């Protein structure tokens, strides 16, 4: 496959196959086994806006598999500040690397980059558009907890208007027959065109401005940061932020196997009291970025993951 720009680039069977690869690669991601499947390969990390987890997990994934990484580094110290176009940057990095992971503030930039490149592009987030590698680690985390992706009840809460993670994830969950509850303030509702598209594809979608009432029946609660900078009135933000803050006490009626996820960073939407509960999965979710991206790197580079990987020794 040429690259991964949106989840539409993957069939359901391909998604499940990549998740199976990721499961087998767990001992490699955890450092218990060394398996240099990507030795001699070079990943170009092009991050035109800030990133911690996505950039570092791509780098960790490549190095755990014996490959190397070159980074664009701080945009302020790159040729971008001299006026170099994205096309020219991609052409240049294309010659240095075997695969590129890219994050860019402009929606559509990843597809533009793939059109300009000969090597595969992994979209690490394009503006408010898509974040398919995040979706893959999210699906891995959900399947890890529930053993399936089929027919789950999933709450997506917080900033659904600008949150590219929930845009990609909601489409993927719809493909597996999940029931979706969108909990957000009116100002930050899921864009109507996305809701209409999901509904057209058979999604069971409920929109609400209230979070806590749905938790008892949920299998997954996916929290996102409400962005204070989107509110002109700070008092309005304060009211909304308080309504979307999970405490451990809010989870008393939840299903035993319900999981709470968050793409991170969190601000105040998940209280630290939740961290010690059986429901918290957001730090495991962040680690799963390594194993999911390992599987994607192998797939896009045409490297087959062994069916059996020894835990603690060579494969």
Describe, in plain words, how this protein is organized in 3D:
The protein is α/β, with parallel strands linked by helices. The chain folds into two domains: 7-131 and 288-300, Rossmann fold (3-Layer(aba) Sandwich); 133-285, 3-Layer(aba) Sandwich (Rossmann fold), CATH 3.40.50.1370. Helices cover 36% and strands 14% of the residues. The protein has a five-stranded parallel beta sheet with strand order 7-6-5-8-9. It starts with 11 loop residues before the first helix and ends in a 15-residue tail after the last helix. The model has no long low-confidence stretch (mean pLDDT 90).
Broad CATH class of the largest domain: Alpha Beta
> Radius of gyration, Cα only, in angstroms?
19 Å
The chain-level mean pLDDT equals 90
SS elements, strand count:
9
The CATH architecture of the largest domain: 3-Layer(aba) Sandwich
CATH topology-level name of the largest domain = Rossmann fold
Helix share of residues? Answer: 25-40%
Q: Characterize the overall form.
A: globular
List unreliable stretches of 5+ residues. none
Termini gap: 25 Å
In order across it, which strands form the biggest sheet? 7-6-5-8-9
Keywords:
Rossmann fold, alpha/beta, 2 domains, four-stranded parallel β-sheet, five-stranded parallel β-sheet, 315 residues, 10 helices
Helices and strands in order, then pairings?
Elements: H1 12-24, H2 26-29, E1 42-47, H3 53-64, E2 68-71, H4 86-96, E3 99-104, H5 109-116, E4 121-126, H6 132-146, E5 153-157, H7 164-175, E6 179-183, H8 192-200, E7 204-208, E8 220-223, H9 234-243, E9 259-261, H10 282-300
Parallel strand pairs: 1-2, 1-3, 3-4, 5-6, 5-8, 6-7, 8-9
Helix pairs in contact: 1-10, 3-10, 4-5, 6-7, 6-10
């Amino acid at each position: 496959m040429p690259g991964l720009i949106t989840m539409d680039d993957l069939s359901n069977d391909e998604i499940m196959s990549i998740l199976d690869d990721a499961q087998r690669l767990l001992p490699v991601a955890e450092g218990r086994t060394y398996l240099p499947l990507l030795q001699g390969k070079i990943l170009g990390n092009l991050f035109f806006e800030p990133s911690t987890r996505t950039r570092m997990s791509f780098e960790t994934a490549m190095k755990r598999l014996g490959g190397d990484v070159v980074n664009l580094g701080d945009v302020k110290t790159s040729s971008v500040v001299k006026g170099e176009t994205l096309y020219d940057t991609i052409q240049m990095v294309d010659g240095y690397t075997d695969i590129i992971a890219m994050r860019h503030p402009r929606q559509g930039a990843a597809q533009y980059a793939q059109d300009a490149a000969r090597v595969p592009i992994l979209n690490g987030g394009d503006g408010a558009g898509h974040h398919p590698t995040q979706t893959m680690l999210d699906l891995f985390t959900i399947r890890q907890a529930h053993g399936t992706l089929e027919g789950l009840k999933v709450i997506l809460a917080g900033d659904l208007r600008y949150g590219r993670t929930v845009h990609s994830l909601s489409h993927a969950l719809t493909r597996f027959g999940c029931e979706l509850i969108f909990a957000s303030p009116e100002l930050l509702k899921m864009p109507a065109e996305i809701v209409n598209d999901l509904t057209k594809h058979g999604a069971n979608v409920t929109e609400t401005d209230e979070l806590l009432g749905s938790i008892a029946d949920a299998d997954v609660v996916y929290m996102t940061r409400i962005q204070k900078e989107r509110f002109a009135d700070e008092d309005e933000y304060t009211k909304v932020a308080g309504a979307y803050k999970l405490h451990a006490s809010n989870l008393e009626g939840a299903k035993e196997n319900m999981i709470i996820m968050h793409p991170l960073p969190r601000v105040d939407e998940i209280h630290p009291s939740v961290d010690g509960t059986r429901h918290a999965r957001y730090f495991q979710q962040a680690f799963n970025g390594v194993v999911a991206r390992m599987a994607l790197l192998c797939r896009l580079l045409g490297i087959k993951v062994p069916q059996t990987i020894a835990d603690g020794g060579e494969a």
